[in-house]
Amino acid sequence: MASISIRNLTKRYGNFTVIPDLNLEIADHEFVVFVGPSGCGKSTLLRIIAGLEPISSGDLYIGDKRVNGVQAAQRDIAMVFQDYALYPHMHVYDNMSFALELRGVSKAEIDARVRRAAALLHIEPYLDRKPKELSGGQRQRVAMGRAIVRNPKAFLFDEPLSNLDAKLRGQVRAEIKALSQELKTTMVFVTHDQIEAMTMADRIVVLQSGTIQQYDTPETVYERPANQFVAGFIGSPAMNFFPVEWRQEQAVLSQGGTVVALDGETAGRLSKAGNAVLGIRPEHFAVATDAADGIAIDVKLVEPLGSDTLIHFDLAGGPAIARVDPALRPKVGDRINLRPQPGKTHLFDATNGRVLR
Amino acid sequence: MTDAANTDRWIRRLNLVQLVLAGAIIMAPTVWMVLSSFKPSFEVTAYPPTLVFTPTLENYVELTRTTPFLSYALNSLIVTVGSTALGLMFGIPAAFAVSWTRISWPAILTLAARMAPGTLFLLPWYVMFRQVGMIGSYTALILSHAVITLPIVIWVLLPSFDGIPRSVFEAAQVDGCSVTRILWRIALPLVASGVAVSAILAFVFSWNYFLFALVLSNGDTKTLIAAAFNFIGEGSTQWGALMAAATLIALPPLVLAALVQRWLVSGLTLGAVKG
Question: Which residues cross the membrane (chain B) (predicted)?
């Protein structure tokens, strides 16, 4: 068990800087998820922690020890790879016992640990099989088992669910979460899937171009995004954005001039800024009964999801989505009135995207 | 019958014709050699060649009577096994190092050495080995044949090592393996079929190599292929004995080549990664 501390870390490939001056503190026993679009540097950062990539400058501490020049083999961390990376010539048992054998653990202890991990992951019947005889989900569990038996200082996961089908992904996601609560070990999980990030993390690191955009709890990242990038990345469907201006003591959409009813606090911030980008999550639209109270939209597409319904429409020159009650069954071409729920709107600086508070 | 089925039938027929033609061209000299070795000596060079004849072992008897055939065979075996072992000993770590570091110039250098004509090495080696009194020794022959075996091992194994997913090596690193241990415990078992193929190819090429043994061996260390050259004289050539010797020389590589086929198709890395 150990904390992970990254200080002024830079990673360059030749002249190309992937991670410029990054600082991050991961507490002991914490489950932290790195999330961001492809190429944001999240896997590179994980590989740096693992010792598979050298650091260009800065410091990395695992526990109290500076590990900049320490080989992966000596860092005492375990990693689950995206493609599982099992040893194909070894049986499942040997895959799991290999690291312990290298550390000179006694055979009895190895056997006890392997069988305990196998029981935990329900892979006991497969211990004498080779990886090629297992399904994707079973291989995934073996990869986790290989990590668990080590009892390492920290677990690193590099998009381990991306090769599983949707149903299995949900199941394994829950299992990893349960495992983290049982093992009480520091875990760092990389994903591009914001649902995985939201459901598993104690804290989320949202990355873009090697820079941390926000590092906070899932609730805070969702409810109080630090900037327009985070707001757009976290949440599905993504937050709707509309350029908005303060004109004649009211908020109006820059394109089309539609008046938007904002709560007093948000309106106050907009009046100070003059113009901004208004962010409204699809689930934070309400259907207005009074036409004067809402924004009239024409329904372009309806997606009934069962639990709720997504309505696609155009507003202020761009596409937008609202999530409404499934009891409401609008048809394509219908005109309905939507209004943002009070206190649920976000304003972002029109020039740098930072949230206006 | 549809057009597609017709086209398919014609493609199959053309493939068969191609295979038969290629097979005939490749096999004709070998068949000629084997048949000639069983012909009476006066029929070997008869023109037009005789296809129907009474087979005889007289050429084989002549071969064993006039030459210490078994000692030459033993010499060939010592030199070939030695140089193949040397090739594997240095070629396996070298191929792994090239694959691991992705620095390819050392491998290209060995390929250049392999592509260079053998005569290029011959004079400096002759001088060098004579200086240290090693002309005619097995060591000189084994070392010189390593120039043949080492590049073969490296270039056969390189794609095998490259074919192992990098993440498997990285998993081993995280598990606590040093690079050397990754080679022996992870990479080598996964390229076992490649090692077998490279060993067999190195064996065949070294076994059949003529030039170095002709110059660097002596009467005690002469290899089979160099000894067979003795049957070619200034005035007359003993074609029957030469064909018998050539047939016996060709046997081990042929047997090994048949074995290679079994190793070539191997799905050892299946299941290492997704899919």
Answer: 16-35, 72-96, 108-129, 135-158, 186-210, 239-260
